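User: Watch each token:
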Amino acid sequence: MMSIIKNFAWQSLGIYSASVVSLFLLPYLTRTLKAESFGELAIAQSLAAILALLMDFGFLYVGPPEVMQARGYGARKVGEVLRSALVAKLGIQIFIAAFTILWILHEWPSIDSRLVWAAILWSFSYAIQPSWVAWGLEDHHIYALIEALPKLVSLFAILYFIRSGDQAFLVLLFQAVFMLLTSTMIWFFYLRKYPARFVDYKIAFSLIKKGLLMMVYRFLGNAYLNFATYLLGLAKGALYAGVYGASDKAARALLLFSEPGLRILIPLTTRKLITQNVTYSHILKVGLLLGIGTTLISLIMSLVAHPLLQLLLGEEFIKTSPDVVVVFRILTFLLPLHSLTKYLYVALITPLGASCSTLASTGQAIGFGTLFLFSLMYWSRLEPTLMAYFVLASQFFVLVAAIFTARSCIERVLKK
């Protein structure tokens, strides 16, 4: 328990230290970019999330190295499986990326092609980057710092290269390239632990077949999430345009509550606990601890958001732009909780093996499918603020569905 608190404190200190430095760099960017450009970036990130969903599948079917070793696999066999899985994932990503590019450019010619390319590049890094977390690399706080380096490099590159709002797509471009390079470096460093003479392409093709099947489940199951993500992207775009267009101080305030800073608050060391001899009740206690902590952070941030905006923007702006303030408060409450569900799913479900992950994904598909049908009936009647709360509730619904769907599987694995 102390190790969790210790790592939580170090990660929080590191992330917010980087955020404080960024607070003084961001105004230089806002002076060169138009307010509308940030809305375009928000929409592009929503598009990138959809593309990443198509690319990020089929890789965890083999289970983490600890599970494979428990099944009797030697170090060399583990290396062959890992390399085969890596080949399968990269091959699928290239195929899906090429298909997506051709389809989007053919069907949606009105979309700025630079925006599409930027979103695709971002989705590559989005799909590959979290892999080292799921596979339980040691010294997570060190890798978290390595992960932050490309973000800082891309920030300086953006400040140097961007001269107009028309070049806003470079923001995603640089972030994607540097994140991809860093993730690849981490992966090949990790694979050195498991030597292998060759790649078993039979395993690779088997993973591709299973991955394609799961892609259908995840795409259908997450259809609601894609829809909600796009709406939130529009909300973020309106928020960015309003706040960034107001003053540099407001831009600094917004960055303090930005998603990149919040999502890494969740301790990455939870994954290490699962590989030890822990019980199912222990897993739930850890999840409950993280849930309470993250909820408190969300509540505090939501409460201080309004007075902070009032202090930086002035009472007159608050009265004339109430929607900006409302959406701002909802997003500051939503983002850390949204990130919590992602990390809990990775930490508590996928490390336990292929069957647990498959069961949990099926539970997700059922949950999202139900919510998607509900949203089709009522989305036009919901205000943007209610839609944001609806998305928040759906995250907890899906997390609970995934955990309890895979509960029996988790208990079987822990008893072995």
